[in-house]
Q: What sequence folds into this?
């Protein structure tokens, strides 16, 4: 027997989360399930996705794991079809899959392979996924909501040694706002969230411990700490919820004030 969630904004709805095998993606998937959604978790590797599903089901939720590469249009279309076949609709999509390659390499020294890897996943993936998602959502009476995960590195700030990542995440922000204008008339709301330093592996410096990161954050971030995964997830759920009905084409920065 399970207890009803304190809030149930997504009961009866289906939420799809890419890059849900860990980090922010897993946190977002758990948060949607906690508020009543049927959750489809996607990523390239099956094992971490199954771990996410297990966590959701242990808490009394419903989830489906689907292996998919967001850089391949056919796989993304199959992912959306699997979500609809299992749960009957696609009401929310969170496009979180992303990579940071060549970290620490200056622009002139960034390998072309790393550049192309980031373009393929961070930009092309955030074109192909919403294309498949909108195609389904525009057929539904209540449309849907899409939240793309960008970054405070990009439009909002730059860090030395992250040029390729910054370019691709800036593209996510602009693509999200452009798509929002294109598809609000279809009943599909599109927004973005730009996290700053968050309690995931990506926020560690080379060889850095949690203690070392905490000490660095005290001076680097006005809030004095990293954001938790749950705090970023809360921003995503807000933008996906009916409470944000008039919010279209925004890029919500969650970074503890580091770009204020």
A:
């Amino acid at each position: 027997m399970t207890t009803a969630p304190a809030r149930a904004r997504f009961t009866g709805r289906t939420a799809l989360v890419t890059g849900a095998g860990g980090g922010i993606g897993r946190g977002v998937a758990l948060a949607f399930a906690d508020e009543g959604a049927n959750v489809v978790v996607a990523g390239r590797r099956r094992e971490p996705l199954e771990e996410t599903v297990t966590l959701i089901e242990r808490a009394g939720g419903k989830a489906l794991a689907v292996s998919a590469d967001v850089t391949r249009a056919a796989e993304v279309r199959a992912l959306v079809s699997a979500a609809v076949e299992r749960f009957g609709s696609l009401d929310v999509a969170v496009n979180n899959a992303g990579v940071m390659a060549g970290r620490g390499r200056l622009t002139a020294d960034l390998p072309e392979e790393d550049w192309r890897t980031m373009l393929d996943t961070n930009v092309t993936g955030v074109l192909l996924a919403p294309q498949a998602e909108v195609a389904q959502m525009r057929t539904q009476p209540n449309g849907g909501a899409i939240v793309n995960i960008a970054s405070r590195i990009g439009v909002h700030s730059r860090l030395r040694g992250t040029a390729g990542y910054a370019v691709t995440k800036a593209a996510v922000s602009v693509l999200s706002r452009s798509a929002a204008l294109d598809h609000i008339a279809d009943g599909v709301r599109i927004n973005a969230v730009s996290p700053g330093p968050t309690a995931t592996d990506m926020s560690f410096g080379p060889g850095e411990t949690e203690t070392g990161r905490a000490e660095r954050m005290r001076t680097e971030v006005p809030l004095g700490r990293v954001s938790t995964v749950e705090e970023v997830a809360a921003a995503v759920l807000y933008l996906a919820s009916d409470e944000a009905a008039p919010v279209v084409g925004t890029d919500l920065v969650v970074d503890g004030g580091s770009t204020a």
The chain is about 40% helix and 15% strand. The mean pLDDT is 95. The chain has one domain: 14-199+206-254. The helical segments are 23-34, 46-58, 73-87, 112-137, 163-183, 210-220, 229-240.
